[in-house]
Predict the structure.
Amino acid sequence: MWEEQGASLLVVKKSRFYAHLYEITSESDVPEIREMHRKKYRKAAHHCYAARLNLPEGCLEPFGSDGEVGRPGYVLLHLLQREDLASHMIVVSRIFGGIKLGPGNVSRAFRDAAAEAVGERA
């Protein structure tokens, strides 16, 4: 089982970004956590994530943007790398608020929500 190490909520132009940081131990944790978020945040249109584990290259899909503009999954992966979180996964679920943000602002909002969750870790 995985352990949540931080969480945050960021509101940008009525869109809500729910970010959660988990410590993970295996590759199978990634789809399980993603499915948990799909159930927990049913109204969210996108569940972007990034994951890092000490596995050989190509074993783990390191990020996913779930159809969101601006490649926020890649931005989340960069955050995990910058913070040297090697056995972690970050998931950010966005509930659309009716105002389009554009690719740059979307990526920034995902990153900022994730950074707050990372800052919460013990």
About this structure: The mean pLDDT is 89. The domain at 3-119 is CATH 3.30.230.30 (Ribosomal Protein S5; domain 2). The CA atoms of residues 45 and 60 lie 24 Å apart. The chain has one domain: 3-119.
